[in-house]
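Subject line: Sequence and fold of a protein, written as structure tokens
Body of memo: The sequence and its backbone structure tokens, given next.
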Amino acid sequence: MARNNFFAFKQFSVNQASCGMKVTTDACIFGAWAPVEHARRILDIGTGTGLLALMAAQRSMGSIDAVEMDASSASAAEVNFINSPWPDRLRMFHARVQEFYPIAAPYDVILCNPPFYLSGTRSPGSGRANSRHADSLSHEELLDVIDRLLAPKGTVCVLLPEEIALTFTRRAQSRNLQESERLYVHSAPRRPPHCRAVVYSRTASVPPVEKTLFILTGSGTYTSETQTLLRPFYLHI
């Protein structure tokens, strides 16, 4: 198997050969940062490889449901779940999340690294294209799903490109979802943030807690803050 088709972490591995979007540093940082530790029920929307669900399983004792519309990605994520230390707490659903109606109670935490872009040139291959664009799941549809599935005191953790974060937040606020935490992610010092991780809730206080993370130092190594986040997961930290 090609090297980039398999990503080994300390407690689990991700086979990503058939997935549209591969494991990224931004997603790993998001999965390590999102406040999931005390959640009993967690939902990962658009799970892809299953990365965020697997990280949530490592960081909590909760039951995690993952939804993915792409058949190849859903199949890969299910195998990754089965081969993990937590197959009894991870459930895979191959479905459009707009049509996902779980029998169990609402979710304490919803995780989502949603379709990024509202327009623009698509990359070759429908899997990667659907993972990066919002045609298959618009932000309004995503917020409809969140409103339907989130527990009254639950939280939503979303990873957003910086250029659309403000627009998404305004739409969330129209659904009575307020920011409680915000993490600006910079690739390196003196570079603007390229994405932000945001926690929304229906009971959030204003203003939100704001933090900044630089992934790399000026010399190209991981900063101490990045190392602290990724140490429980990355093999060589």
Observations:
- The beta strands are 6-8, 13-15, 41-45, 63-68, 90-94, 107-112, 150-161, 178-186, 195-201, 209-214.
- The chain has one domain: 24-230.
- Helices lie at 25-33, 51-59, 71-82, 126-132, 139-149, 162-173, 224-230.
